[in-house]
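hi! just following up on the protien thing from before. the input was this:
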Amino acid sequence: MPDIERWPAWHLLSTSARLVERRWNECLQPLGLTSAGVIALQMLGSAVPCAQFERAEAIGVRAQSLGETLTRLQTQGWVNLERMGRVQNVSLTKDGEKILERISEAEQEISTQLSLDGRLRGELEALVENLTPPFLP
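and the predicted 3d structure came back as:
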């Protein structure tokens, strides 16, 4: 193990984020998901149908990146993609709603395993709020 006591806080945060995401992706693999897919599904589960570019803007990713993720989710039967002229509307399917329930259970499990609730969660929420540009929700 490297001498982490000497690392600056940003390095600790960056490294821990990558390690947590790796563990999260390992938990999601049996469900056929990645963390990007989870973010997209959760976004769809909490909103009314709207254009893909609006969703991408809301979560701070490029529309093309979100489009690739949504295409994979459509292949799995979890989202509907409907083109209306130049705009592609996106919505969750019934199977998508079911996988969201399984995701929620997996999130509870990994949060418990990694002790991600409590004080650390509050500090991370504050950090995200402080660093989020005003144009994002």
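The longest helix spans residues 9-28.
The two ends are 38 Å apart (CA to CA).
cheers
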